Amino acid sequence: MRVLLDTHLLLWAAGSPQRLPKAARSMLRDPETSLVFSAASIWEIVIKSGLGRPDFTVEPQRLRQGLLTHGYEELPVTGEHALALRTVPPLHKDPFDRILFAQARTEGITLLTADHELAAYGPPSKLV
After folding, report:
1. Which of 2, 41, 53, 67 suits a disulfide with 72, CB 3.0-4.6 Å?
2. Alpha helices in the chain (DSSP H)
3. Chain segment 99-124, per-residue pLDDT in tens
4. How many independent structural domains does the chain possess?
5. Full domain range(s) for residue 9
6. Structure confidence by residue, pLDDT tens digits, 14-35
């Protein structure tokens, strides 16, 4: 199964794995799981770390390289993903979470999240 991690799960997996929900840790350890991160998450980290957000203190370039080194697949943001936003209702105000959902739905990937608002979209979002 291919699994796209939302930005917070991605940050926790890379720097604070003890913060991951137990279900997420299980999925990440499963050899049948292909781990995916979005270029949108790197973009979000760059923007929010530049704004001084304390939950985004990681160095984005180092994070990206570490993810790639550890076998994560990088998912670019495409025009098809952007167009898919037209059919994503505005349940969630965060544009980064909305594009992650659009990407997951377009690509047929499970989107893992600990965010109840993001999970409210339903499949392919999965609350952990």
Report:
1. 67
2. 7-15, 22-29, 39-50, 60-69, 79-84, 95-107, 116-119
3. 999 999 999 999 999 999 999 999 99
4. 1
5. 2-127
6. 888 899 999 999 999 999 999 9
